[in-house]
Design brief:
The complex is a heterodimer of chains A (345) and B (323).
Chain A (H helix, E strand, L loop, with lengths): L2 E14 L2 E14 L3 E5 L6 H8 L9 E10 L2 E4 L5 H7 L4 E4 L13 H12 L4 H14 L5 H4 L9 H13 L5 E5 L7 H18 L2 E6 L2 H7 L2 E6 L2 E7 H6 L4 H9 L52 E5 L2 E4 L4 H14 L3
Parallel strand pairs in A: 3-8, 3-9, 6-7, 7-8
Antiparallel strand pairs in A: 1-2, 1-4, 4-5, 9-10, 10-12, 11-12
Helix pairs in contact in A: 3-4, 3-6, 4-6, 6-7, 10-11
Chain B lengths: L2 E13 L12 E13 L3 E5 L6 H8 L7 E6 L2 E2 L5 H7 L3 E4 L13 H11 L8 H11 L16 H13 L5 E5 L7 H18 L2 E6 L2 H7 L2 E6 L2 E7 H6 L4 H9 L5 H6 L30 H5 L5 E3 L2 E3 L6
Parallel strand pairs in B: 3-8, 3-9, 6-7, 7-8
Antiparallel strand pairs in B: 1-2, 1-4, 4-5, 9-10, 10-12, 11-12
Helix pairs in contact in B: 3-4, 3-5, 4-5, 5-6
Classes of the chains: A alpha/beta (345), B alpha/beta (323).
Chain lengths: 345, 323
């Protein structure tokens, strides 16, 4: 396994009239080849902003960015944060590509499928239009579009949602990138189609040894495909570890709350869901101490620190398993076990 | 339990207009194609299916927000499809709807107080201690701060807006509510709050729900019985326990199998059924069983004869070869 991507202390904020919106507040993350790393969190937790900044897709004029985003390329390591726009452009699509959440609005309605795929290919490869078209058809076949030669000449509106997402995947992979960022790739799709797309991504990952950074809010999808998981809340990673750590030994109260609040088809059904009380904080006025403190149901168990005034650090609980919480290790273990023991509801 | 609502062969076709200048195309989108079910007092019937299966159209046609093409809807012995405009206006106080999108279903220029007071005004109801009092009571009941009476929708988060939508729906204490994907726009932690609220309100006011959703786990949590729709038809209708533990229709089986379980070991060790292809067009549905084009059990009879919804054990199934 080789390291493809490393993010160090990334901070992204957007200045507004009301103050700085701290969308991402210091996160660290690595992605190796052949592995799937998930970023999980609710709306506004900063997961999409993180993924956009990896490709330098934010508006540079209205964004404050600090930290490092190191992308491994053939010519060495490039820091997206400090690199010039043209250097970032040579990475975009070639070393790291992205599939977006909404396949309905991320394809251009006026251009044929082959036109859009060829464009992505010809930016990085000096080839004829015909060669690019052939490559597009090859990619469409790879992602399971029936009659690819015929369908390539059609337009996005002639494709269903699932098919459009396949086209997006074909476009992202046309230059053989090593890093694939999938931002809620199946959220807009029905479950039966979601299952098809996840299977496709897994097969392609095996074939091309890609590292996939999966951004999602769906803990079911994460359980299905992720190797490692980062749980984000209010711009910070609150817990990070292997998928087993997160589901069977959750260590941050937010992760525990999230796991207990999902109903499951294999559950016992009735009975109250344990909702997390309250709502996420404003990113302009983050709490002074722990970001989750106002909603935390375990804060009364904390000793030796003040959740309201002291910011907790991300501390390694066991090998590779980190959590950001003032609770002592023992209490977290007991509470985490309780949540995991309840199993899927 | 007596049936509060009885739906028989409800059908809704939309005409598909062709853009051709050479005259009208007579195609029909068969959004809802002859569905029948009953809902008892205090019961929740879940209605699940993928996008385009007709579940939302079914819900709206039930309330006559859309005019049915054929079929009858009987509410407390009265045929809703035959009501005059005036009678329907009065009737609306007994049946309400909660919409999917809490952002577009509230008028941004009206205060919350005005939005929740609308049902009282429209139906000419004067509560004993005045409208404002009644509105504030219902706001409190759904977990909103009554002091926020004069605020506007943009000042609230998604979960709170959905509470406003719920407050508006229950303001006149209707006995029947269509909840059309009420939690699908919300984050999981907020979703759980809203589901719990709906649960509480139901046991408090003895309301019946038609709970429309695409999320099978949410439906399982809240429903007494579940109907599975595919391309305008009900494929299976069964008590929740039976449907989830023992799905009889191949489509139900495939649908349940496609839902990822939030447990990595369980999820990765199980066998999954992955359906091929997409939903066929409702303008030109397959002949015979509408699911036959994607079904792994399909035989010749499935492609020629449409199966009826028949009783198998505790469930009703529309399949020639039920499990």
């Amino acid at each position: 396994m080789s390291k493809l991507l490393e993010i160090k202390n990334l901070k992204v904020s957007f200045p507004t009239d009301d103050g700085d919106v701290k969308a991402v507040d210091g996160i660290d993350l690595t992605l190796n080849s052949g592995e799937t790393v998930a970023i999980v969190g609710e709306s506004g937790s900063g997961k999409t902003v993180t993924s956009l900044s990896i490709l330098g897709l934010h508006n540079r004029a209205s964004t404050n960015l600090s930290g490092e985003i190191l992308v491994t390329t053939q010519a060495g390591v490039v820091d997206v944060v400090s690199a010039a726009e043209q250097d970032v452009r040579s990475i975009r699509g070639k070393n790291a590509a992205m599939i977006f959440q909404d396949p309905m609005s991320s394809l251009h309605p006026y251009y044929s499928i082959t036109n859009q795929l060829s464009e992505a290919y010809r930016i990085h490869n000096k080839v004829s239009k015909q060669a690019a078209h052939n490559r597009s058809v090859e990619m469409l076949e790879l992602v399971g579009i029936p009659e690819p030669a015929k369908r390539a000449k059609e337009f996005p509106h002639q494709f269903s949602g699932g098919m459009r997402q396949r086209v997006m995947i074909a476009m992202a992979l046309i230059n053989n990138p090593k890093i694939l960022i999938a931002d809620e790739p199946t959220t807009a799709l029905d479950v039966t189609v979601q299952a098809q797309i996840l299977l496709l991504l897994r097969d392609l990952q095996k074939e091309f040894k890609m590292g996939i950074l999966l951004i999602t809010h769906d803990l079911g999808v994460v359980a299905e495909v992720a190797d490692r998981v980062n749980v984000m809340y209010a711009g910070k990673v609150v817990e990070s570890g292997s998928v087993e750590d997160i589901y069977y030994q959750p260590a941050a109260p937010y992760t525990m709350g999230l796991l207990s609040s999902i109903p499951s088809v294999y559950g016992k059904g009735t009975g109250k869901l344990s909702a997390i009380p309250g709502q996420p904080p404003s990113l302009i006025n983050l709490p002074k101490g722990c970001g989750f403190e106002p909603r935390c149901t375990l804060k009364h168990l904390v000793t030796g620190a003040n959740c309201v005034t002291d910011k907790p650090n991300l501390i390694e609980d066991s090998a590779g398993h980190f959590a950001r919480c003032h609770l002592d290790l023992e209490t977290r273990k007991i509470e985490g076990k309780k949540v995991a023991a309840k199993g899927v509801k | 339990m007596t049936a509060l609502l009885k739906v028989e062969s409800l059908t809704k076709y939309f005409s598909a207009k062709s853009n051709s200048i050479f005259g009208a195309n007579s195609g029909k989108v068969k959004a809802v194609d002859g569905i029948s079910f009953e809902i008892a007092e205090g019961e929740t019937l879940g209605l699940v299916g993928e996008s385009g299966c007709g579940k939302t159209t079914a819900g709206r046609t039930l309330l006559r927000l859309l005019e049915p093409t054929a079929g009858t809807i009987t509410y407390e012995g009265e045929d809703v499809t035959k009501l005059s405009r005036k009678a329907l206006h009065d009737f609306r106080s007994k049946m309400q709807i909660i919409f999917q999108d809490p952002y577009s279903s509230l008028n941004p220029r009206h205060t919350i107080g005005k939005i929740i007071a609308a049902p009282f005004e429209i139906q000419n109801v004067t509560p004993p201690r005045g409208v404002k009092n009644a509105v504030q009571e219902v706001m409190e009941r759904v977990g909103l701060n009554p002091e926020h009476y004069n605020r506007y929708p943009h000042e609230f988060s998604g979960g709170q807006r959905q509470r406003i939508g719920i407050a508006r729906a229950i303001a006149l204490r209707p006995k029947f509510i269509v909840a059309d994907e009420p939690v699908s726009a919300l984050d999981v932690s907020i979703q759980a709050q809203v589901i719990n609220l709906l649960d509480d309100l139901q046991s408090e006011f003895k309301m019946s729900f038609l709970f429309i959703a695409h999320d099978l786990s949410v439906v399982q949590h809240i429903s007494d019985r579940v109907a599975v729709m595919y391309l305008g038809k009900i494929m299976e209708l069964a008590p929740t326990v039976d449907l989830y533990a023992n799905p009889r229709h191949p489509y139900t089986k495939a649908l349940l199998s496609a839902v990822p379980i939030p447990d990595p070991k369980l999820e990765r060790s199980r066998e999954r059924i992955i359906l091929k292809g997409d939903l066929p067009s409702p303008i030109n549905p397959p002949t015979g069983c509408v699911f036959s084009t994607r079904c792994w059990k399909a035989q010749d009879i499935c492609r020629s004869t449409a199966p009826q919804l028949l009783q198998v054990g505790n469930s009703s199934v529309a399949c020639h070869f039920p499990e």
